[in-house]
Amino acid sequence: MASDVTSAPVEETAGPGAGTRSGYVRYVGGKLGGAVVSLLAVLVTGFFLFRLIPGDPVKTMTGGRPISTAQLAEYRREFGLDLPLWEQFTDYCGKALTGDLGTSYQFRAPVIDKISEALPNTLLLTGTAFVLYTALGMFLGTRSAWRHGSLSDRLNTGLALTLYSVPSFWLGLLLIIVFSVGVGPIPGLFPTGGMESGGKEGFAYVLDVAHHLVLPVVTLVAVEYGQTLLVTRSALLDEMGSDYLTTARAKGLRDDLVRRRHAVPNALLPTVTLVFVNLGRTVAGVILVETVFSWPGLGGLFYQALSVPDLPLVQGLFLFFAAAVIVMNTLADLVYPLLDPRVGR
Amino acid sequence: MSTQDRNGTEHSRPRRPRPRRLHRLVAAAAGALALTAALATPLNPAPQQAEAKAEKTDKVLTVAVAQSVDSLSPFLATRLVSTSIGRLMYDYLTNYDPKDNHTIPGLATKWASSPDKLTWTYTIRSDSKWSDGQQATAEDAAWTFNKMMTDPGAATANGSFVTNFAKVTAPSPTQLVIQLKKPQATMTALDVPIVPEHIWSKAGDLSKFNNDKTFPIVGNGPFVLTDYKPDSYVRLKANKSFWRGAPKFDELVFRYYKDQDAAVAALRKGEVSFVAGSPSLTPAQAASLKGEQNIKVNDAPGRRFYALATNPGAQAKNGTHFGDGDPSLLDENVRHALFMAVDRKTLIDKVFQGHAVEGEGYIPPRFSTYFWKPSASQELAYDPGKAAQLLDQAGYKKNGDGKRVGKDGKPITYRLLCHATDPNDKAVGQYLKEWWGKLGIGVTLDCLDNVTDPWLAGKYDLAFDGWSVNPDPDFVLSIHTCAALPATPKDIGATDNFVCDKTYDKLYAQQLAEYDPAKRADIVKQMESRLYDLGYMNVMAYPNAVEAYRTDQIKSIETMPLSGGNIYGQDGYWSWWSAVPAASDGSSSDGLSGGAIAGIVIGGLVVIGAVVLFALRRRATAEDRE
Amino acid sequence: MTAPPVAQTGPRALARQRRRRSAARFWARYRTHRAGLVGLAALGLFALVALTAPLTVGSDVSSVTDAPGRPLESPSAQFPLGTDQFGRNLLGLVIWGARVSLLVGLLAAVLSVAIGAVVGITAGHFRGAYGTVLMRVTDWFLVMPTLVLAIALATVMSRSLGTVILAIGVTTWPTTARLVRAQTLAVESRPYIERARALGGGHWHVMSRHVLPNVMPLVLAQTTLMVSSSILAEATLAFLGLGDPTVVSWGGLLQDAREAGAVSAGDWWYLVPPGIAIAVVALAFTLCGRAVESVLNPRLGVAG
User: Fold this and answer.
1) In this complex, do B288 and C266 lie within 8 Å of one another by their Cβ atoms?
2) Calpha distance A195→A119 (Å, rounded)
3) Tens digits of per-residue pLDDT, B267-294?
4) Which end of chain A, N or C, is surrounded by fewer C-beta atoms within 10 Å?
């Protein structure tokens, strides 16, 4: 939830050094090692943090039903809750490293199955939104930078900032009211939630999902494109003062060629990094949008799991979210020096 | 994010134009999107069967649900949505008449008890077939009960019904004999789904088997479950050879809408035929649907009671007391005073907005056999003045700040447990806080996601409580007996509120052994009176069931009771089984709706527009300023 | 400005004068950013509304037993924004909710920036093992999805304002820490720091007398931006049901609206005003923060 609309992020730590091959390999090794350490830290944190959640899950699950002590003990044994905490932890770590994240208390299904059921849905939503808001943000950002100070620039920036400050769940609710339920004479054009209307196959199914995808994606794009826009714009503005561009123009190159070939690609780098680094906010957005639109993805699953507390599922999701962010960050770290050999001076 | 710290771009350096990098990035992104889209489609399990595609003439009843299915195995399922589906898939031994709840035949056509009340013989019908063609016999029933008696995993959901069973046998395919250890009046209300032995004996470990691997699921109920996608939908098709008669609808689909507003909007648009809400539609939603064409709101007496529970001092069967309930609550006068300061009428009016009935006895009025209300002299009517008097008399006087002081000299503050997910709890809690505040008693409203833990540990003073009552009230009565207490403070008992009263227990044992319905009802009413006087569990309201359905999809549907009751979550399958489709063309969502087409056209236009804009922009000349 | 009288009372007074002058310069430069002024004006207005709320609406507006209207009435002369599901005056509730939302936003931001600043300064000052470990922890926190962590924390603790403030503050400090550390490194590389150390200045002296004042403007900018996201975070947590249900806040109002079924009933007056209030305040803080940042670092040049 950090507000990053202002400065373009740049890799702060030392890079591989002058782009030598062995330097890069060392760099990669360092980054990968750091990622592994982070993942382990996530594992530990996730396990202990969620043990703090008040509530004995067995009691919660059976609280409403009469249950004999023998059944209770059976439950505890089944979920491994009768072992001492330390043993539970080592057990969990060992299993996690082999991909077994335990069994969900609520659904009695392997956590990894629940996650892989929900993952494609979330990927579809975030993937589409990501492409759209990155493209939109970059497009409008470059336009704003070129027309710096003009009315359209100010309007663009203003709109971006405003939408960025709007709570995503509120925007989602409003969109539902206006475009789903319908206001006055305007009928509801889009479904109110879910991912599909059921019972369709083949191309009809794809169209159905696309139909359901529109409003959630619009919500996500509206709230996120602003940041991309502003970062692209500021990076480009920075770039535009560079000497080499003056040289290029002095050589007689057309403006838009100058832009396209020189300025924009260089300004892209901070934007690209921003995208990866900002995944935390994306996760937040996904949780909220999925809740509001009943999208059957990881966000909704997470919130459901917290209320039991369905420890294995919560831990698994936490691990998954964090791991995804770590992986993306590491990717960004690895890719960045390839894009910009200046890193590491 | 770090600030820009690019050290000096002042000097020019050799640069290779990198348009390809940009293109590569864009291509990669597009590829990623295409990949995820492609992944999403095949990873969705296609309908498992070579089931003939739903033809356009099929009548489909779509129900909007929110609660996730915990398991499709009747041995493990405890949630309402799962047990409701279980009622549709499997038959029970007996059923309840929708008019007056009396026991009627289910899988069993006749039943009788031996003179010593310990042996029950059920005659199993011979016209019930499993959906794979095999005959349903008493052996299936015997297998089901025996499994629950011997396998702790199988006893997870309904084990409490069989704890008193000594032996269950099936001497013939049409005869089931159950021998009891003690008399049990609930033998005509065994809410246990009977499963096919030939399928389940191969299921392996019942504590892990969720019954969701092969579809259609073999059952003998009015519907057959054909497909299931967690948190997406549950599809059932009508069992045309059901012995009571085939359902009128061809297909029944439970579709998931986690958000209730989304479900209501779906009802408006005809995407679903029925919305039950969880637990019911809000007053605002009901009001907004009332005037709509083709939509009927079913606002009917509910089967729940909504009560205020007071901590009687948590104790275990071995006599150990635990928890930290406020000692002032052990005084009956204090409990009565607290309840007398609750203006139930305002709660019905403001919080439930008329969608509830003022609470009186423990069992809701629609269970007319067992309903009891206090006499005028016994009643704890709303009277804040009298409540203040009672507190003064009990020795809890107001101090200088207007706060009542406990025996320890400190101002009284009660912790009120509320369910964070229940808006009624939060609303009523605020009213209680203000009313009791005027009495001089402080209230801390503890709204938690998980109330079970502090509750079971006895670490509360007051709490919101509520149960759905079945036609046979044995369960909701049993949870206030001393036998329901946990064995030791570390165990979990079946107790609801740690109530333990000798008089109540004696009456409970009496009603359980009483097979004469009228006599039994009388004993139950005495129990309710005792509970009312004790004041540990006082009912504030009976919330209505507020549901809605489309009359242009459902012509008629049976409520339970027939004279006025709920449709979803019945004690039986009456609603879905009896529902008659409306005569008009089934507005089920086959093919693309007009809205979908509109949406896609708009989307396409936007994309085309963007492409055109982009193309135009590339032709901009050097007039573009920076 | 005329030249001040020299050597009035000594180095402290000189330092104070210097700070006053730089503050004046700061304000002069800030004034040139129109967006920043707009943001500041909006903030002033909201602050005024929030501070005078006890006088204008009074705490009775949140009482349910004395609610003046029927549930969910549409806007009218008596109730310009209609009523909520208890019949309370919504306009009054939105005004009253400003206090909590602004307070929580401010406190959470202050907590977050305070932790971040402390961590950043010490990590930048004490290099070596301590600094590295601290930065590893910071980086690790940075990759945590903050909402997930905040939800987990809020679920663990009881539902109260303190929990919300703590949850937000504890999960959002890393950004500030990184920035402050970078700035600390920059400041400490300046020659006068070396001189201060040579003259015998200890750690505390260097950090509090030299680093801190130089880092303050950055911290100020961060605080302003952090308030914006804290307010959004508070609304989010309240919306997810993790806030204090007895306290009126904008996020809580949105959750109440949703639970009451206002979306289905089309009761836009319940849903729109709290959301607008959140958006406007968050936007105002963002504009101010951006203006402050561009005043401090003209190279960012994003004045708009």
Assistant:
1) yes
2) 13
3) 888 889 999 887 889 998 998 899 888 9
4) C
Give the Cα separation of B147 and B141 in Å (integer): 10
Nearest CA to C180 among C122, C106, C108, C110?
C122
Please tell me which of the candidates C168, C301, C304 has its beta carbon nearest to residue A154: C304
In this structure, what DSSP letter does residue B460 have?
Answer: -
DSSP state at residue B457: T
| Residues shown for chain B | 626
Q: Does C189 touch chain B (CB under 8 A)?
A: no
What is chain C's Cα-based Rg? 23
Pairwise CA distance, residues A27 & A49, whole Å? 32
Give the distance, in angstroms, between the CA of residue C244 and the centroid of all CA atoms in the same chain: 19
Angle, CA of B465, B467 and B468, to the nearest 5°? 155
Alpha carbon distance B2, C186 (integer Å): 13
A residues 307-336 closer than 8 Å to B (CB): 307-309
A253/A220 Cα distance (integer angstroms): 39
The more confidently predicted of residues B357 and C55 is: B357
Q: Please, which residues have CB within 8 angstroms of residue B332's CB and are 6 or more apart in sequence?
A: B533, B534, B535
- Token code pair at residue B288: 């907004």
A202-240 vs A151-165: helix axis angle to the nearest 10?
A: 120
CB contact under 8 A, A9 and B262: no
Could you tell me which residues are beta bridge partners of residue B560?
B566
Please list, in sequence order, all residues whose beta carbon lies within 8 angstroms of the beta carbon of residue A163, skipping any fewer than 6 positions away. Answer: A171, A222, A223, A225, A226
Pairing of strands B554-556, B580-581: antiparallel
pLDDT exceeds 60 at position B36: no
Query: What would the pLDDT profile of B151-164 be if each residue is shown by its tens digit?
Result: 888 887 888 888 89
Is A243 at the interface with chain C, CB within 8 A? no
For residue B132, give how far its alpha carbon lies from the nearest alpha carbon of chain C (Å). Answer: 44
**Residue bearing tokens 């729940």:** B304
Q: In B, residues 418-477, which contact A (CB 8 Å cutoff)?
A: 421, 448-450, 452-456, 475
pLDDT at C85: 86
Contact C232, A165 (CB under 8 A): yes
Q: What token pair was written down for B33?
A: 């999107």
Beta bridge partners of B537: B309
Chain A: closest CA distance from residue B149 (Å): 12
Q: Are B328 and B311 in contact (CB under 8 A)?
A: no
Angle between helices A264-277 and A111-146 (to 10 degrees): 150
Please name the residue of chain C whose CA is at the shortest distance from the CA of residue B292: C265
Q: B15 with A244: CB under 8 angstroms?
A: yes
- Which chain C residues have a beta carbon less than 8 Å from that of A126? none
Query: Contacts from A301-307 at CB under 8 Å and sequence distance 24+?
Result: A301/A114, A301/A115, A301/A118, A301/B231, A302/C148, A302/C151, A303/C151, A303/C240, A304/A106, A304/B68, A305/A104, A305/A106, A306/A53, A306/B449, A306/C151, A306/C152, A306/C155, A307/B421, A307/B449, A307/B450
Residues 6+ apart with CB under 8 A from C20: none
Strands B462-468 and B304-310: antiparallel
User: Which amino acid, residue B469?
Assistant: V
Task: With residue B291 as reference, give the H or E element that holds it.
Answer: none
How far from B452 is each of A62, A79, A312, B314, B482, CA to CA, in Å? 9, 19, 19, 14, 19
What confidence tens digit (pLDDT) does each residue in C231-279 have? 999 998 888 888 888 888 898 899 888 888 888 787 888 889 999 999 9
Q: Which residues pair with A95 in a beta bridge?
A: none
| Shortest CA distance from A36: residue in chain C | C140
Report the complex ipTM: 0.82
How many Cβ atoms are within 10 Å of B490's Cβ, its own excluded?
A: 11
